[in-house]
Structure formats: C-alpha cells, structure tokens
Amino acid sequence: MPNWNLIGSLIFPNVGGWVGAATTMVGQVSNQKNNSWYETIKKPTWTPPNWVFGPAWTALYTGMGYASYMVYEDCGGFNEKAVLPLALYGGQLVLNWMWTPIFFGMHKIGWAFIHILTLDIAAAACAVSFFKVNSNTAYFMTPYLCWLAFATCLNHSIWELNKDDPKTE
C-alpha cells in the first residue's frame, strides 16, 4: 500500500515550483522581441547557468517536503505539537512560491530582494522548529537554507547591477 502522506509531502512543495516555471514558459519573462527578460538584464559572473535552477529547486523542494513528512510523523499527524512547525513550513513555502512572480513576472528585482530576505527569516524559523522535533531534518533543510543564502546574494547582486534600469523597477 502506498504511503500517500509521504508521496504528498514530496510532491506538494514542488507544485509551486512547477507553476512558477510554467508561468515563465508562457511568456511572462519575455519582451516584445521574444527575448527572455532575464537574458537582457545584467547578472554577476558567478550566476549559474539557467539549466541548474530546475534540478536544484526540485531537489530542494523534495528535501524540505521529506523534512515536513518527518515532522508530521514524529508529531503523530496534524495535532497541537505539529501546528507551529507545519504552519511555519507552509508560510515559508508560500513566500518561496511568491518570489518567482515578483522577480520574473513583475520584474521587481528590489522588491524581490526584500521578499527573499523575509523568506530567509521564515525558512530559518521553519528549520529551527523542524530541528526541535527531529534533528535529522537538518540534513534536508540545511541545503535549502544554503541555496536561499546564495539566491539572496544573487538577487541582491542583480538588483545592484540593474537598479538604474527603468525596465527592472
């Protein structure tokens, strides 16, 4: 018999990533010349190639999903003990999903930077609350926190490089 709670925990966080990717593929990041908006803005030399983001986020979403499953199981399901860590998880996940439309859809690099700083705090709070339930969740949340730190630095650098360009703010 399949463990639907585990399967759902692994798939659910990826849904927002898939929706975000789909919205970028249907033209929200393109300009009138059919060029990708992201390709036209200035980026630091240490920006990863575009193909890295899909696999990285899939692994990170799946890892944090598994961490949420560990918390769910260790707390005995959705109960009083699970409320805070799983609410923090849901909150940071929604913040994560909202970043893509702000950055890519609205081209608001500065607002996206402020948003990702908020996400960093929420994700750290979630990771700490998960750790208090099960210390092994750190194996899944730490890569996510590290990637968020990298993404925050990248967002800030892109903002600094483009903040005088009217098409980005």
UniProtKB/TrEMBL annotation:
The chain crosses the membrane at residues 52-72, 84-104, 110-131. GO terms for biological process: tetrapyrrole metabolic process. Pfam families: TspO_MBR. The keyword Transmembrane helix applies. InterPro entries: TspO/MBR-related_sf (IPR038330), TspO_MBR (IPR004307). One of its GO terms (cellular component) is mitochondrial outer membrane. Keywords: Membrane, Transmembrane, Transmembrane helix. It is a multi-pass membrane protein. It is found in: Membrane. It comes from the Eukaryota. Belongs to the TspO/BZRP family. This is Translocator protein. It comes from Papilio xuthus (Asian swallowtail butterfly). The lineage of its organism: Eukaryota, Metazoa, Ecdysozoa, Arthropoda, Hexapoda.
